[in-house]
C-alpha cells in the first residue's frame, strides 16, 4: 500500500482497509446459531446471564433456546420448538442470580455449571475437525 492510499484510508476511518482477525475457535463465540425445528434445547449462549429478579414478579425462562429476549421467553418456541415449553417461576425475594443460557442445567432456571460441559464438547468437536 503506497502512502497516498494509506492517507486516504485513514481519512475515511481506516476500518475499510484493515480487517479484524477472525476468531478461530467457535467455543468462545458468545451466541450459538439456531436450527429451524428442534425437539431438544439449543444453547442460546456459552455463559449464564446475570439478572436482577424482583420478588413476587412472574418470569418465564426460555427452555428451548430460540428466544430473542434471552434468558426469558418471547414465544418463539411455538414455531421452532413446539415440544418445549418455558419454565415459569416467581422468586420469593429480590436478588441477582445467574440464569442458565446453555439450557443443560439440572436446576432450571438457575445455572449449575453445565455450560462447562457444552464448551468442552465444542472444543472437542473443533479439534476433531482440525485433525481429520
Structural overview:
The structure is a single chain. The chain contains 3 helices and 4 strands, in the order H-E-E-H-E-E-H. It is an alpha+beta fold and 132 residues long. Keywords: 2Fe-2S, Iron, Iron-sulfur, Metal-binding. This is CDGSH iron sulfur domain 3. Pfam families: zf-CDGSH (PF09360). GO terms for molecular function: 2 iron, 2 sulfur cluster binding; metal ion binding.
Poorly predicted parts: 14-29
Order of helices and strands: HEEHEEH
Major β-sheet annotation: 2 strands, antiparallel
Share of helix, binned = 10-25%
What is the rounded distance between the termini? 38 Å
Number of H/I helices: 3
Gross morphology: globular
Structural class: alpha+beta
Tell me how many strands there are. 4
- Residue-averaged pLDDT: 81
Order the strands across the largest sheet as they lie in space: 1-4
Rg calculated over all Cα atoms: 20 Å
Oligomer: single chain
Estimate the strand proportion: 5-15%
Summary tags:
132 residues, alpha+beta, 3 helices, 12% strand
Give a brief description.
By secondary structure, this protein is α+β, with helices and mostly antiparallel strands.
Secondary structure elements and pairings:
Elements: H1 3-11, E1 49-53, E2 59-61, H2 77-80, E3 87-89, E4 95-99, H3 115-130
Antiparallel strand pairs: 1-4, 2-3
Amino acid at each position: 500500500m503506497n502512502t497516498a492510499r494509506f492517507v486516504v484510508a485513514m481519512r475515511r476511518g481506516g476500518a475499510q482497509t484493515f480487517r479484524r482477525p477472525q476468531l478461530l475457535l467457535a467455543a468462545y463465540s458468545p451466541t450459538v446459531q439456531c436450527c429451524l425445528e428442534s425437539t431438544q434445547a439449543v444453547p442460546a449462549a456459552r455463559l449464564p446471564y446475570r439478572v436482577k429478579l424482583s420478588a413476587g414478579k412472574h418470569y418465564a425462562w426460555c427452555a428451548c433456546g430460540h428466544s430473542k429476549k434471552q434468558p426469558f421467553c418471547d414465544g418463539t418456541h411455538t414455531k421452532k420448538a413446539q415440544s418445549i415449553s418455558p419454565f415459569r417461576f416467581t422468586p420469593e425475594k429480590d436478588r441477582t442470580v445467574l440464569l442458565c443460557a446453555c439450557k443443560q442445567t439440572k436446576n432450571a432456571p438457575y445455572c449449575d455449571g453445565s455450560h462447562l460441559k457444552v464448551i468442552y464438547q465444542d472444543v472437542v468437536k473443533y479439534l476433531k475437525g482440525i485433525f481429520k
